[in-house]
Write a sequence for this structure.
């Protein structure tokens, strides 16, 4: 497994501002993912962040709104830009590891609870 | 595109009893993984159990086991001897193929309440 930390754990922001969320992993991983979980709902993938290349965004998410950095194999940031109340969600970072049994597993950080007023 | 359906928004179980959470999925692929994740109020997502589609044997992890029916595209989670700490939101998730970096597709989730 992997131990993942996120900063901040929660924040309250004003509309029109931006927030950068940090994700740190205790081991080197190739693939990192950013998910959004809107209140009372399931998780939706925002983008996949591969070290050394541009992030790949899912339909409905764009780089201008959610720029992502992946400077090395243990760290990534997600910025939520020009925020509106609709961006109020939990944002989760996850990593994929390849297990000795020959399978893939994804592990999640504790999430960042964002409230936009 | 793959979809995952959890038809039970909420379930309740008495402490020490058994409960089964349902999950169905839709895919045209033959190779994939299925997962159950637990999200307690702390919101930390915890991997509970994993099933590889090519394996006929159902996965088990202590009190947690699955009933994987590939032809029916069904993947239910059975929790035996339920404990208060099992109370959480449970998500079923699908991951296609064996390639590195495939996303998880999640169901809507089932809230499990455990009564003492």
């Amino acid at each position: 497994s992997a131990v993942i930390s996120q900063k901040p754990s929660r924040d309250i922001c004003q509309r029109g501002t931006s927030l950068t969320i940090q994700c740190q992993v205790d081991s080197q991983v190739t693939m990192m993912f950013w998910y959004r979980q809107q209140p009372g709902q399931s998780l939706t993938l925002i983008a996949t962040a591969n070290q050394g290349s541009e992030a790949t965004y899912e339909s409905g998410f764009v780089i201008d709104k959610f720029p992502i950095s992946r400077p090395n194999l243990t760290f990534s940031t997600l910025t939520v830009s020009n925020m509106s109340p609709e961006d109020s969600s939990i944002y989760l970072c996850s990593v994929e590891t390849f297990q000795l049994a020959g399978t893939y597993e994804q592990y999640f950080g504790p999430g960042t609870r964002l409230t936009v007023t | 595109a793959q979809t995952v359906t959890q038809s039970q928004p909420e379930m309740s179980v008495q402490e020490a009893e058994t409960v089964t959470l349902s999950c169905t999925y839709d895919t045209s692929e033959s190779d994939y993984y299925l997962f159950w994740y637990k999200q307690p109020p702390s919101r930390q997502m915890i991997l509970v159990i994993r099933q590889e589609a090519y394996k006929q044997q159902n996965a088990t992890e202590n009190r947690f086991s699955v009933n994987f029916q590939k032809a029916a595209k069904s993947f239910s989670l059975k929790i035996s001897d339920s404990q208060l700490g099992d109370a959480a939101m449970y998500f079923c998730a699908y991951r296609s193929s064996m390639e590195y970096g495939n996303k998880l597709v999640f169901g809507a989730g089932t809230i499990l309440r455990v009564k003492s």
Observations:
- The longest strand of chain B covers residues 88-96.
- The two ends of chain B are 41 Å apart (CA to CA).
- Chain B is about 0% helix and 55% strand.
